[in-house]
Amino acid sequence: MILNPSFKDFVVYEDESIVVLDKPHGLLVTEDRYDKNIPYLKNILSDYYGKIYVVHRLDKGTGGLLIFAKNKDAHSLLCSEFEKGEVGKEYLCIVKGRFEDAVTCMLPLASRAQRGKYKINFKSGKKAVTSFYPVKVGEKCSLVKAELHTGRTHQIRVHLKALGHPLFQDFLYNKKIDDKRLTLFCNKIALKHPINRVFMQFERSLSSFMQDIDDKYLNNSE
Question: Is 59 annotated as catalytic?
C-alpha cells in the first residue's frame, strides 16, 4: 500500500509544459469514487504545482510512464495527440503460462463494465486492437511486450484473458487476491512535445515488483 508518497521520486522528466512520471503500482491517478481519503497522484502533484491536468490514465494496479500537463495549452495539444493515435505506448506484461507466439488480438470490447469487468462483445463492442510479442517464455509464466493500437479500458487485460494468458497477477481477470497490483507496466512512451513539437521518447526498465517475479520464475527462461 502506498502511503503519502513523495512524487519527486517518480519524476522522469519535466519542463514548463509537462511532467513525465514513473507511476508505482497501487497508486491511483485520480480521486477514488468511494473513498476520498485514498492518496492519488493528481492531488499529490497539485500540492506542489498548483493546477495540473490529467492527459491519460493508468489503472491503479498498473505501473509505469504517465504524462501530466502543466497548463491548458499543453493539455489540449497532448489530448489531441492521444485522440489521434499519435502517441506510441508499449507495455511489459507478465502473463500466465507459456506465451510462445506473437499475435495481434482484434476482439471488440464492451463499452460498459459489469461489476468492474469488461468483456468481449461481438454484437455491440467497440474496436480494440493489441499486438503481443513474447520476450521471455517460462513454464509458469511469460514476459510479453504489448503494443496498443486502440485505447479501450482494460484492453490489454481483457485481450490476454481471451487468449488464455491472463496477467500473472490480476485480481479481476485471474485469481482473486487481496494484492491489487497488476503485472502490467508501461515501459515506453513516444510523442511530440505539445509546444515545440520535438519528438520525445521515454523508456523505463521493469518495476521492482515485476522484476522480482521475473527473477523468481523467468531468470533462466528463453
Answer: yes
